[in-house]
């Protein structure tokens, strides 16, 4: 956050303190929401959650402001990995959002909540994919209705893309990767259009491309998967995500018997992984090196193969 942004945030925090002392609950809730939104935009959920809780607990029950504040609090919990807390709030919010079908704001909140539920249920082991699929499909339908009604905000397209990812995840969980390809293509197209310049959305685009490539591989469409993985290596900026994209591309090329392309991609992946903390990357690095070893032995490059063997021995637990 810039110096001016920090100063503005400090003024908002002071205003919140004054509003809470007066007391001015409505003004306090709105100010807390502004602070939480600024902190979330900076990727600081651990600080935002305090203010999100103030906003959610201060607005009156049943109002659109309370529902919006609860949705913000859910996002904080999910970003912090507090999945059970997020799920409790989501399950309570869905029926509230359904009560006002004619209000576009409540419809948008319903779609967001359904998409979040679709992601949370499998992660918490509460669903085998069936309910997650149904909720993701309903979320996408509601997003499409909002778009048809003229609500054409960028955030709505990105949220719909997120729902497509959760739908694809549920379909793959249920052994239907071919059906996951179309929603993943829709997600990638939306994110490529609406995410440039936004680091958080760029991460979502990388995830979508990897999921699409994986689904194509699982569906027996390795040629298409190779194109997607190659594109993923070009758009991904995070070092770990780049390493994963190159590893997937290399493995795909290896399956297609394109040994030179496979080795080049795996070598890039290994170089990236070596520069990252070992505790988070050791398993992937070992898998990449084993694949490289097979290619080097096949090509008769014994000296390079021996170096890989030595590195694998050092990495072994």
So how many helices?
Answer: 15
When the domains are counted, the total is: 3
Mean pLDDT: 90
Going by CATH, the architecture of the largest domain would be Alpha Horseshoe
Write a compact overview of the structure shown.
With 317 residues, the protein is mainly alpha-helical.
Polypeptide structure, described:
With 317 residues, the chain is an all-alpha fold. It has three domains: 81 residues, Tetratricopeptide repeat domain (Serine Threonine Protein Phosphatase 5, Tetratricopeptide repeat), CATH 1.25.40.10; 95 residues, Alpha Horseshoe (Serine Threonine Protein Phosphatase 5, Tetratricopeptide repeat), CATH 1.25.40; 91 residues. The protein has 15 helices and no strands. The longest helix is centred in the last third of the chain and has 21 residues. The two termini are 41 Å apart. The mean pLDDT is 90.
What descriptors fit this protein?
mainly alpha, 3 domains, single chain, Serine Threonine Protein Phosphatase 5, Tetratricopeptide repeat, 317 residues
Helices and strands in order:
Layout: H1 3-21, H2 25-41, H3 45-58, H4 64-79, H5 83-98, H6 104-123, H7 130-148, H8 154-173, H9 177-194, H10 199-218, H11 222-235, H12 239-255, H13 259-274, H14 278-298, H15 302-315
Helix pairs in contact: 1-2, 2-3, 3-4, 4-5, 4-6, 5-6, 6-7, 6-8, 7-8, 8-9, 8-10, 9-10, 10-11, 10-12, 11-12, 12-13, 12-14, 13-14, 14-15
